[in-house]
Structure formats: structure tokens, C-alpha cells
Amino acid sequence: MFQNNLLAKGRAQTSFSDMAAARQSDNPDSQFYPSAEEFFPANSHLALTFDDITLATLYSEILPRDTQLGTTLAEGLHLNIPVISSDMDTVTEARMAIAMALNGGLGLIHYNMPERQQLSEVSRVKNHVHGLIQEPIKVTPDQSIGDVLELIEQKKFGFSTFPVVDKKGRLVGLLSGHVVKPRYAKKKVSEALTPRAQVHTIKKRELGKDPIARADKFFTEHIGIHKLLVVDDDDHLQGLITMSDVERITQERNAQFKPARDAHFHLICGAAVSATRNAFGELDRERILNHVGALVERGVDVVAVSTAHGHSKGVGDTVKVLRDAFPQLPIIAGNVTSAAGAQYLAECGANAVKVGQGPGSICTTRIVAGVGIPQMTALYICSRAAAKKKVAILADGGITKSGDIVKALTLSHAVICGGIFAGCNEAPGEVVEISGKFYKQYRGMGSFAAMKAGSAARYGHLSNPTQKVAPEGVEALKEACGSVDRVLAQLIGGIQSGMGYLGAANLLQLREKARYIRVSPAGMREAAPHDVVELKTGN
Ligand code: XMP
Fold first, then answer.
1. Distance in angstroms (rounded) separating the CA atoms of residues 131 and 133
2. What is the pLDDT of residues 33-43, one digit of tens each?
3. Best of 424, 445, 459, 472 for a ligand 1 pocket test (most atoms within 8 Å of beta carbon)
4. What is the pTM (predicted TM-score) of this model?
5. Which is catalytic among the residues 95, 458, 511, 515?
6. What is the distance between the alpha carbons of residues 101 and 329, in angstroms, rounded to a whole number?
């Protein structure tokens, strides 16, 4: 009887697996292209990164241009595109953060600068009025037109109209381009300017919530006027709005991805902080709280406790201190590559966890310390722990192309990129010319130069590293690559294309639908242009 039961059970099992096999032979996709839940555990003996895998195409009714890229990282922290610029001293200061937010993303201002300067970088982003040139080039009444011509020549300005201010920064008049001519070189600016009474101005507070619409109305009502000067109540010059900027921005408003703004219509901005220690090696709670308090006063939208080893007491304690003091403040913390690490930071109070140890283009952590996990495996492991804790995952480092972003977004809520943006106009630092090519400096925050400039704490070293400290990053160059707008347009196009192939209308669907397969080295070679003489690169 017992045996009969077993036989019957065996027959039932056989017929069940036969049916499953039959189903698989009808549709081998599920066998070859499994979901993350099946694929990553089946490859648990091997750490995988972006190029080790490819995503399978799925039935789609979704056109790339109709895909939605919005992502929520914490309550009150929503991005319109899932892209963040790294908190690195050769990537994100105010200019980069403004460009990122205007495109719908987020910039994390680095902390390799005096705390006071970080506060003013955040203020610059929060006070940015799109279309308002906040620090226009000014001239003074005692200069000659010759001086102004020299300035234009020296700085290669493409404009020749300048506001004129006195020593206290109060508006005196406008020097119009049609008098900035060599024939008037000897004349004083005071003789040639359009006097204050005839200059069109608006008070900064009158610009309201939508300065572009306000300025647009002004230019329509004042035929032939192309510049509007912005002043405060005491007539100090506060900025300049040009008609051409307003027209460009009005056109851009029809763009698919809106700027990322807070509830008061200011651009969003993040700032990185470190787990600062005092002279006794203890966490300097007071200093951290004072600094983050000041950042919050300036309107910062998120702070990132940013270190190389996030699964550590110092980082956890910093997150706890901040969570207690600022219950509503979105907190990013990292970096980790294990489920235990992600869970720990979530339990300490982080809303989003940065994942990545050693994937970065300037990183040498894996070489120097022998530690770190290739990014797709790290993302899978951390994302499963994060999902249980209901926190977001940020894929930090190693991204070199839009396809990597699509793969990363199958397991994360946004990506953090350094190298991709380091060559942009908006990154800190000057362009240098080498053998006719243009470059910008890009360095790891764990490189010796960056640690000397202040980032040593991020790598668990004293703030004044000696020669004995082993750097975990290199100093490098990136080819200059134009504006962030241009780079992001390419990346977004790629992300949308990937989502179209997977039939994913939004990022949640991308995470749910993704199916994976390993790629052989020959498969990887096949993926890039081959056996042709390339005339133009893909980017
Ligand atoms: P990508 O690949 O975008 O990587 O250039 C940027 C990320 O790399 C991390 N980072 C470092 N990692 N040593 C490291 O091991 C370093 O010196 C270093 N500096 C930055 C960081 O997470 C950044 O977002």
C-alpha cells in the first residue's frame, strides 16, 4: 500500500516534470532567459558585472519615447530621470548639480571642500533661477570702452552688452553693445552708458514662482528690448535675463523630462557628508549635526553619508544620529555590496543605499585591498535585502554606456555616475589641451591627491594622510565631451530604447520584467562594432 502510494506519487511527479519539460520545449525562453530570482542564485559561484550579461528582448507594446523614467528614492525625493552625478571633487559642484536637476536628475555636492563652501554650493543650486544669469559680467563707470574691448578679447566673450554698477554693486546703467566699438575706445563707460532711469529692471521678488513666464511676458510687452536686469530693493544688481535664453527655455519646456524641483519650485540638490571623527577618533556628532543642520537650513533635499565601507559602525552611527535629529530628511548611505550591509544601513535609518565597491573607472580598491564585488551580482544581493526593508538601491560606479544603466536599473532605482560626467563643461576644473585633444581632470576620491585635499575620511584614513596610506584611486583625464544636456540626452535615449525592447513602460516594470543570460567573451566581442573600419563612433 505504502509502496503503491510512492509509485503513484512518483508517476504524478514524472507526469508533472514531463509537462514542465513539454512547456519548456514549447517556449524555451524561460529556461534560457530566467528572471533575476532564478538567474543570480544559479550563478552564485561567479561574480558578474555589466558586460557578463545581456538582457533578453520581450514582447512589447511600448515605444521608447513613451517610457516613463520617474523614480522615488524616499518620501519627498522624486527624480524625473534615474541618474545622479557622483559626489566627487572633479564631478559635482553647484554647476553640475544645477545641470543635473534641470535635466530631471540629481547632483550630490562633494565634501572635499571647507564646510562653509559646501553650504554656499548648495545655496547656489537652491537659489538658481533658470534663465537668470545670477552673476552677470559687469563693468564700472570709470572704465574706458577700450578696457571693455580688451576684456571681451581676453575672455573671448560672445556678447558686448554689460550692466554698469558702482563700487557697492548698485545699478548705474547699461552699456549697450552698439557703443562698445574701437572708435569710442578712449571714452569712459560713464559717458557711453544708457542711464539707470532708462534701463528696464524688475525686482527679484517680483519674478514669482515662474520667472521665465514673467520675463517672457515682459519681452512681449516691450518691443525691441532683449535684456531685463534684476535688482533687489536697494537697487543692487541681482542678475540678468536675456530674451534668447527665455525663448530657448520656453521651447525646452515641451521636453519630456521636467527639471527635478522641490515643493517650492527650487531645483533639488544633494550633499555628501562624511562620518567625521574628532581628535580622539570618536564620531564628531556635534560637528556632523551642526553641518547637516546648516545644509537643511539652506534647503538641501538629501544628504549622502558617503564612504568606501558603509557596513561599518562609524557610518551606521552617523546615519542613526542624522535620522534621530532630522526625521524627515532623506538619507543616502553607502557603499556596500552585501545583503547584510544593505540591511544594516536600512535599519540605521537610510532611505537609499549606495551599492558599489571597486567598480568605478578610477577605483583601485579591488587591486589595493583585494576587496569588492562586480556590480550586477552586488546589485542583486543588495536589492533583495533592500526590498525587504523597503529602501531604494543606487547603483554606484562602473557605468560606461547607456546599456550598463539599463542593466543596473533592472536591480536598482537610480544610477550614480562619475566618469561619464567628468569630461562635461559643467564639471569642476579647466579644459587642458594635449596634442590637439581636449581633456578634463578626473580623479578618484581615494587617490592620493584627493585624500590630501580632504577626502581621506571616506577611506577610513586620518584627514592628513601620510605617504604610508595606500591610495585606492587614480588621477586621470577624461576627454572633454561638451554639455551635460548632450551627454544625458544620449544616455536617456539608450535607457528608453532598452525599456522599449523589454516592453517596460516604467522603471518598476523594467525591474519586474528583466530576463538575463550570461555572455561569453566571443558574445561580448559580437556586441561591439566589429570587422568594420569605423568612421564615426556610436556616441
Ligand atoms: P565611475 O565608474 O562612474 O565611478 O567613474 C564613480 C564612483 O566611483 C567611486 N569612487 C571611488 N572608488 N576609489 C574607489 O575605489 C576611489 O578613489 C574612488 N573615487 C570614487 C564612487 O562611488 C563614485 O561614485
1. 6
2. 999 999 999 99
3. 445
4. 0.83
5. 458
6. 18
